[in-house]
Amino acid sequence: MWSIVGLTYGSALGLVAYFGGFGAFLLVLVLGVAGFLAGRAYAGETDLSTLFTRARESGGARW
Fold first, then answer.
1. I need a surface site. Which of 28, 33, 36, 63 has the fewest CB within 10 A?
2. Which pLDDT score, from 0 to 100, does residue 44 have?
3. At what angle do helices 2-20 and 22-43 cross, to 10 degrees?
4. CA–CA gap between residue 30 and residue 24 (Å, rounded)
5. b (16+ CB within 10 A) / e for 23-46
6. Measured distance CA(4)–CA(28) in Å, rounded
7. 37/4 Cα distance (integer angstroms)
8. For the segment 8-39, what is each residue's pLDDT rounded down to a tens digit?
9. Residue 19: its pLDDT value, please?
């Protein structure tokens, strides 16, 4: 199944790059990756809390 999803996404990126240019290609790529990560987080397959929390350093200055 993932090979078909990858083929579809790659084809969509190719069409966007051809008709929309490099800026549109990058926009679709970034939004696709963000949607993929959000879907995995929603399904419970990926823990994104480490990206949004900072580790507390002992004895250091807080910014």
1. 63
2. 80
3. 150
4. 10
5. eebeebeeeeeeeeeeeeeeeeee
6. 18
7. 18
8. 888 899 899 899 999 998 998 888 888 888 88
9. 92
